[in-house]
Amino acid sequence: MLTVEDINVYYGAIHAIKGISLDVPDGEIVALIGSNGAGKSTTLRTISGLMKPKTGKILYEGHDIAGVPAHKIVGMGLCQVPEGRHVFANMTVMENLELGAYLRKDKDGIAKDMDDVFKKFPRLLERKDQLSGTLSGGEQQMLAMGRALMSRPKLLLLDEPSMGLAPLLVKEIFNIIKEINESGTT
């Protein structure tokens, strides 16, 4: 589904990613592991179109997406949940979720996916009218994941999904990741 071939990414003169290659087969869960500063987030940001590699290829379903704008990549079915969650703090939970579906036009499908998100994350339904910035860290992580799911991704990139969460919540998040994968999302 995804092949990254020998990408090199720079921040100005700093060579942040040096020739990384990886494959993500359809239907799999793949983890990118490395120490702080090793380039994991930069790799994901490059795959999702937020950065452009200087060299190398990023093939998603056979199409080279290196340099394609991020919103077009989302429209192709590849979505990222960023490190640190980045919810829209001054918007409600419901408004954040609706933003996840901003490229979609299928109202019935959007409504069904909203119901599915609330089944996966019942706390979000309880807090649907609450400002997102007032949620706990774990609830914000659930919201960020739910917002990404609203784009109906085929491939979901999760950057540090357990960062800063209590151990019990980490277990719950990883169970939900497994459930998302079992429902057909790589």
Describe this structure in words.
By secondary structure, the chain is an alpha+beta fold. The chain folds into 2 domains: 1-68, Rossmann fold (3-Layer(aba) Sandwich), CATH 3.40.50.300; 77-186, P-loop containing nucleotide triphosphate hydrolases (Rossmann fold, 3-Layer(aba) Sandwich), CATH 3.40.50.300. Helices cover 38% and strands 20% of the residues. It has helices spanning 40-47, 70-75, 93-100, 107-120, 122-126, 137-149, 167-182; strands spanning 2-11, 14-24, 55-60, 63-64, 78-81, 155-158. The chain has a 4-stranded antiparallel β-sheet with strand order 2-1-3-4, covered by helices on one side. The protein has a two-stranded parallel sheet with strand order 5-6. Helix 3 packs parallel to helix 6 (137-149). The radius of gyration is 16 Å and the shape is globular. The model has no long low-confidence stretch (mean pLDDT 95).
